[in-house]
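Hi Y.,

Following your request, here is the sequence exactly as I used it, all 179 residues.
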Amino acid sequence: MLDGIIGGVVAALLTLLGAWLTTREAKKGRVAASEEKASAVLLGLLKGLREDPQCLQGIRERRDFEENYLATVFAFRDPKVRDRLQRSLDAILTSRLVAYEPELREEYPALDRVVARDVRECLIARIDGKRLPKPTEEWTYATAHAVAYLRKQAASMEAAERQADEDRENAYWGPGGIL
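Below is the corresponding structure, written out as tokens. Let me know if you'd prefer a different format.
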């Protein structure tokens, strides 16, 4: 009789353990599927920025982009991932608020590339079940100071253009030049 009771208790415990493990694995699968879907949506949003950097000039476009991005970010369970993705969004939106400085508009792709690269690395790490990669110095600066980052890129571009002009002038007028 004692053997029957012990056998019943062991069977009940094993059944309970099996049900718990099945539920846990099903939950992990749902979370993973949700995050994979959210990853695809985020990459699609960033692809739209890459194809048309000027697409967020209007208030409605910025609001729609922000709402879609945030709704997707909330699918991630890890608060560190959500925070990192949110900071990337903030950099994108902040950079678009400098519409009063038209010369900076040409630098959107530079900031977008930095942000998109970091978002991709975060998503890959999350899907692979690895730790988030350490943010690059460029991403850290770009997200903390989006407008300053754009100005720095614009200044760098201007310096490169001046140097190219100087090189052309020297090739034309300088020693060994045409005149």
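The longest helix spans residues 2-51.

Thanks again,
Q.
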